[in-house]
Automatic annotation (TrEMBL):
This is Uncharacterized protein. The lineage of its organism: unclassified sequences, metagenomes, organismal metagenomes. The chain crosses the membrane at residues 18-35, 42-62, 68-86, 91-109. Keywords: Membrane, Transmembrane, Transmembrane helix.
Length: 144
């Protein structure tokens, strides 16, 4: 569907394809929630922030820019942090989908999919623990 250019200083083309299609699926889910759910102000701001971050990352998978990708990589974590206080069940489910997708991709690739070869923040163990805690909290909120 999209022709990605090869860039030696950037994430591999295969990983970019996976990240792009994950972003497109997330954007679809978020747009569905935006148009079908009555959201409170906080949920709406978190949703719009997440939509902006995800859309920008999708664009960065097609049009490479290393410094912007590093910035938006951090913003993913910030938006996920604020998802803990979201109240809408559909939005909580969307964040759970994102976290579970990240878990699967971390398992497959051994690190975040948008890290290039040899790149790391050096926080792998705390990162996994934090992701498991977020998943547990959001899962609990979805059930209750």
């Amino acid at each position: 569907m999209f022709e990605l250019s090869e860039c030696s200083e950037y994430v591999s083309k295969d990983k970019r394809n996976v990240a792009l299609y994950l972003c497109l699926s997330i954007i679809s889910i978020v747009l569905y929630i935006l148009y079908t759910q009555q959201l409170n102000q906080y949920d709406l701001y978190v949703l719009l922030s997440g939509l902006f971050v995800c859309s920008t990352i999708a664009l960065l998978m097609v049009y490479p820019n290393c410094s912007l990708l590093s910035l938006f990589h951090v913003l993913i974590v910030v938006v996920l942090f604020f998802s803990i206080w979201v109240e809408n069940k559909y939005l909580i489910g969307a964040f759970l989908y994102i976290l579970l997708s990240f878990h699967v991709l971390w398992y497959i690739y051994g690190k975040c999919i948008i890290f290039k070869k040899g790149e790391s923040w050096g926080l792998e163990i705390p990162q996994y623990i934090t992701a498991y805690i977020w998943t547990a909290v959001l899962g609990y909120k979805l059930i209750v």
